[in-house]
Amino acid sequence: MSYEQTKDEVAVFPNNKKTNPQQPDFTGIITFLDGHKLEIALWGRVSKKTGMNFMAGFVQKPFSQRNQDAPAEQLAPPKNNNVQVDF
């Protein structure tokens, strides 16, 4: 049985098609209750202050919905690792 995402759910999977270190470590889709979807790109990071592992990334419109006339947007890993996460 294959996985089927339901509305109001997030699904993120390891990026097994990664060929470049700047590509995300994980990718996925958010599906909202109204049915629209957004893509997720996440990179694994380590806090410089605490040594704690965390994920940072971006959310954007799916590739098929992006404006074809706009210049291609290149995702790069977040540069700021100074995120303080207090658990």
Q: Would you give an account of this structure?
A:
The chain has 87 residues and is mainly beta. It has a domain of 57 residues. The protein is built from no helices and four strands. It has a four-stranded antiparallel β-sheet, with no helix packed on it. The mean pLDDT is 83.
Largest beta-sheet details: 4 strands, antiparallel
Give the end-to-end Cα distance, rounded to a whole number of Å: 36 Å
User: Runs with pLDDT <50, length 5+?
Assistant: none
Write down how many β-strands occur, each being a DSSP E stretch of 2 or more residues.
4
Strand order of the largest sheet: 1-2-3-4
Keywords:
87 residues, mainly beta, 4-stranded antiparallel beta sheet
Describe the structure concisely.
This protein has 87 residues and is mostly beta strands. The chain contains no helices and four strands.
SSE layout:
Elements: E1 9-14, E2 26-31, E3 37-46, E4 53-60
Antiparallel strand pairs: 1-2, 2-3, 3-4
